[in-house]
């Protein structure tokens, strides 16, 4: 807080009508609002210490950081770490995997919540609707460890599917350790866990559609599918654009735990993404400065993607994530 | 189309007024074809089954006797004898009991802390025109745009001496900007006259929050608490990153090490019978599945109570935020 107010004691102005009016507006507001400020402080403090201070800690990317000397005493190396990234095949392999997973999920995951929302919206019975909604939201609240364990128990080498195949004499296969199937596997896991939850936003958008639009369209002779095409889908466009932007902005972030947990079983070639790469080079191999540089590159590119995607949305006439 | 006749046109409006009580198909809407209804029913059934079947199998296996598991050759789909032996084995001391207690403790303390400071901050920021309201809100919202990065956060936690302590599981992620914004936009929609009149009656800001605002915000507070609680209960990565000692492990780490990676649980009697080609010890399977159930039960139990507030609390908050 700009704390210059301490120089003018508040009691100096108490009761003086004209003086109080001449006192700067912020000083009067501070006197009135200090309890509110006090209430914001704990949360603000947590954010400053654990969000903004580490943001500054990114300077280790420009250093040869050693845990023994600390940030202050480590030697500065300039852009050496970034030059190393440019020629590091492992970094680019991780980046490639990350983008591949994002692209794959954009095609195979993204439409599913929309379809699910349309299905739930079309159910007439409120009881059935509530049941379906409750059930499909539930997996969102399970941890990744749990989701992957469930997949392993169902589809893994010793899982239910394979023991069934064995009992019928068919050949077995292990989805959980096959690098070639990994892309499909992680997408299936994401769908199982989050598609239902993702449908919430679309359901909210569908609920705001004016029913008289449907009626007018019906009177004008539009059938079931034409109404879907001309009334329902246009209502979803702003939400779809918003979520696409968010997803594109997060193109370099595909989630940490899901990949960390399966990296061992599937192998680094398929399962290494940028986040796990930063973790293994930094924390496991203690190459802090280099990993911080890799994380910084990822963060800066990611931020640029969000801002660019939002700009495109504004140009296209949509509201975007934030309005200017 | 054929059902729409001029004589019936006033009816839809009358019906839609009553729609919330007993939904009826509007007159202009064609009734679905038999094939369409059947397809929809199958689709709904498949979706419900895909979500619920794995849970059914896991819960049932954890409750099954050793014979039932052997007969099924692994996971049990059809119940045949129920026993709580696996839970007894796990919850009478040892690694898993301790992990459950640790997870419960972290969840309770973390949720109380996070919800508390989020409520305070959300109220403090909910009256536009408050001193420094804009820069503080900006400070919160900016955290949406970029994260601080894994390595600097790790180094900070390390230099604060928080490695291998429970505070590392709670403090770094204690405030979620999303939850804060949800609460704040809900508070902003409360009538200002209510708050002003309480202030005129001499209530302190804290009194306004606890006696006027909170009683009106039970739903959204419940939802935000659930989000925080689920986050703490499910937290795997922070524990994996910051905790070195096995005895401090929360349940998710136990689940990963002993179930997902299949390492034997120390101190738990291992079953003797094995399944032919499936590998693994049969009684161990019930115990493993019991760990899975322990990890998912609290969420499944709390969830139905909060679920009804989802749309009201979250969507309204998020859309207007």
UniProtKB/TrEMBL annotation, chain A:
InterPro entries in alphabetical order: MetI-like, MetI-like_sf, UgpAE/MalFG_permease
Family from the record: Belongs to the binding-protein-dependent transport system permease family.
Principal subcellular localization: membrane
Protein name: Binding-protein-dependent transport systems inner membrane component
GO BP, one annotated term: transmembrane transport
SUPFAM superfamilies referenced in this protein's UniProt entry, alphabetically: MetI-like (SSF161098)
Superkingdom classification of source: Bacteria
Organism for this UniProt entry: Actinosynnema mirum (strain ATCC 29888 / DSM 43827 / JCM 3225 / NBRC 14064 / NCIMB 13271 / NRRL B-12336 / IMRU 3971 / 101)
Sequence segments annotated as region (Disordered): 1-20
Keywords in alphabetical order: Cell membrane, Membrane, Transmembrane, Transmembrane helix, Transport
Topology with respect to the bilayer: Multi-pass membrane protein
Transmembrane portions of the chain: 34-53, 99-124, 136-155, 195-216, 228-246, 288-309
Entry's Gene Ontology cellular component terms: plasma membrane
UniProtKB/TrEMBL annotation, chain B:
Subcellular location: Cell membrane
Start-end of Low complexity biased regions: 1-13
Transmembrane segment boundaries: 41-61, 68-87, 99-124, 136-157, 169-187, 285-306
Gene3D superfamilies: MetI-like (1.10.3720.10)
Entry keywords, A to Z: Cell membrane, Membrane, Transmembrane, Transmembrane helix, Transport
GO cellular component, one term: plasma membrane
Entry keyword 4Fe-4S: no
Primary subcellular site in the record, as a coarse category: membrane
Matches recorded under InterPro entries: MetI-like (IPR000515), MetI-like_sf (IPR035906)
Record-annotated ABC transmembrane type-1 domain positions: 100-300
Membrane topology summary: Multi-pass membrane protein
Residue segments, region Disordered: 1-29
GO BP, sorted A to Z: transmembrane transport
Coiled coil: none
PANTHER family, A to Z: ABC TRANSPORTER PERMEASE PROTEIN MG189-RELATED-RELATED, POLYGALACTURONAN_RHAMNOGALACTURONAN TRANSPORT SYSTEM PERMEASE PROTEIN YTCP
Family affiliation: Belongs to the binding-protein-dependent transport system permease family.
Name of this chain's protein: Binding-protein-dependent transport systems inner membrane component
């Amino acid at each position: 807080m700009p704390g210059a107010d301490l120089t003018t004691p508040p009691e100096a102005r108490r009761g003086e009508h004209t003086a109080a009016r001449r006192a700067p507006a912020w000083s009067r507001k501070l006197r009135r609002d200090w309890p509110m400020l006090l209430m914001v402080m704990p949360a603000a403090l947590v954010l400053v210490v654990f969000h903004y201070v580490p943001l500054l800690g990114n300077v280790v990317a420009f250093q040869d950081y050693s845990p023994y000397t600390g940030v202050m005493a480590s030697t500065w190396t300039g852009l050496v770490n970034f030059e190393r990234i440019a020629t590091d095949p492992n970094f680019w392999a991780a980046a490639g995997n990350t983008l591949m997973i994002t692209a794959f999920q954009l095609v195979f995951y993204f439409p599913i919540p929309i379809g699910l929302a349309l299905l739930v919206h079309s159910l007439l019975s409120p009881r059935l609707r509530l049941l379906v909604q409750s059930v499909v939201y539930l997996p969102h609240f399970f941890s990744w460890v749990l989701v992957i364990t469930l997949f392993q128990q169902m589809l893994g080498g010793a899982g239910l599917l394979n023991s069934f195949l064995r009992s019928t004499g068919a050949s077995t296969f292990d989805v959980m350790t096959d690098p070639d199937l990994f892309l499909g596997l992680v997408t299936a896991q994401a769908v199982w866990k989050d598609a239902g939850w993702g449908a919430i936003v679309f359901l909210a958008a569908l609920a705001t559609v004016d029913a008289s639009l449907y009626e007018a369209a019906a009177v004008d002779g539009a059938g079931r599918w034409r109404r879907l095409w001309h009334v329902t889908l246009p209502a979803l466009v702003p939400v779809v654009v918003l979520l696409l932007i968010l997803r594109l902005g997060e193109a370099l972030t595909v989630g940490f735990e899901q990949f960390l947990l399966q990296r061992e079983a599937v192998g680094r070639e398929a399962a290494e993404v940028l986040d796990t790469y930063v973790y293994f080079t930094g924390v496991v191999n203690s190459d802090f400065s280099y990993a911080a540089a890799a994380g910084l590159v990822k963060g800066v590119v990611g931020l640029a993607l969000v801002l660019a995607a939002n700009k495109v949305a504004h140009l296209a006439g949509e509201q975007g994530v934030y309005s200017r | 189309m054929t059902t729409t006749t001029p004589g019936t046109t006033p009816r839809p409006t009358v019906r839609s007024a009553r729609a919330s009580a007993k939904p009826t198909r509007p007159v202009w809407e064609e009734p679905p074809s038999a094939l369409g209804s059947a397809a929809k029913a199958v689709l709904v059934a498949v979706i419900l089954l895909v979500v619920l079947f794995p849970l059914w199998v896991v819960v049932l296996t954890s409750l099954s006797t050793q014979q039932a598991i052997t007969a099924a050759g692994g996971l049990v789909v059809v119940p045949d004898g129920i026993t709580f032996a696996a839970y007894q084995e796990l919850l009478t001391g040892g690694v898993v009991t301790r992990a459950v207690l640790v997870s419960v403790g972290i969840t309770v303390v973390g949720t109380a802390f996070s919800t508390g400071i989020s409520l305070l901050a959300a109220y403090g920021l909910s009256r536009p025109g408050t001193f420094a309201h804009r820069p503080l809100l900006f400070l919160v919202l900016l955290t949406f745009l970029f994260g601080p990065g894994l390595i600097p956060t790790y180094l900070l936690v390390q230099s604060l001496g928080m490695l291998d302590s429970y505070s590392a599981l709670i403090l770094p992620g204690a405030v979620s900007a999303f939850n804060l914004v949800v609460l704040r936009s809900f508070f902003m929609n409360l009538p200002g006259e209510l708050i002003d009149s309480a202030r005129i009656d001499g209530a302190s800001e804290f009194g306004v929050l606890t006696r006027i605002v909170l009683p009106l915000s039970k739903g959204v507070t419940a939802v935000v608490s659930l989000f925080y609680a689920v986050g703490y209960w499910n937290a795997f990565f922070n524990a994996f990153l910051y905790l070195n000692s096995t005895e401090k492990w929360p349940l998710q780490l136990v689940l990963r090490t002993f179930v997902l990676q299949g390492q034997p649980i120390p101190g738990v009697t291992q079953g003797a019978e094995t399944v032919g080609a499936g590998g693994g010890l049969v009684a161990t399977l019930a115990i493993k599945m019991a760990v899975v159930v322990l990890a998912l039960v609290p969420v499944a139990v709390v969830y139905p109570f909060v679920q009804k507030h989802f749309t009201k609390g979250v969507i309204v908050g998020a859309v207007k935020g």
